[in-house]
Amino acid sequence: MSIASAGNGSSNHLALEMMMRQANLQLVHVPYKGSGPAINDLLGSQVESMMDQMTASIEHIRNGRIKPLGITALKRSPMLPNVPTLDEQGLGGFEAGTFTGLFAPAGTPPAVLDKLHAALQKALADETVRKRYESMGVEIMHMTRPEFNAFVMADYQKWLKVARDANISIQ
Q: Which of 66, 112, 124, 145 has the fewest other C-beta atoms within 10 Å?
């Protein structure tokens, strides 16, 4: 069975490799140059399945052109409450997500970081902003700066191991 991703070394590819290893599956990985071309080929039946981020696929899911088979988070998505997680489907503890964060150069003064963090929290508290993110399939995570730093470092270590174990190189 063929399964598309947004490209070699992409978060989609890493999640796919982790899923195949955990489920003991042999799938044919078909890397694309981004989610857009992969989605086009999925819609056109050139590939049989795809590992993708909800932000790229949500509109196709909503209009019935793509059928979601499983959520890679540990809990169901409020946007797709009827779609079970891979954990629920037997891949115990499977979790593969992506995130967007605000970063600054090393050495940025703490006062500047505090100001950026406060502005971000204010923006994310705005109902219009939250609804816009939710419409795109994004779940907002509220974290302190130290919590976010720990989250990023743990995520990095997790995916570094997956990439090394699968001998993934970016092309």
A: 112
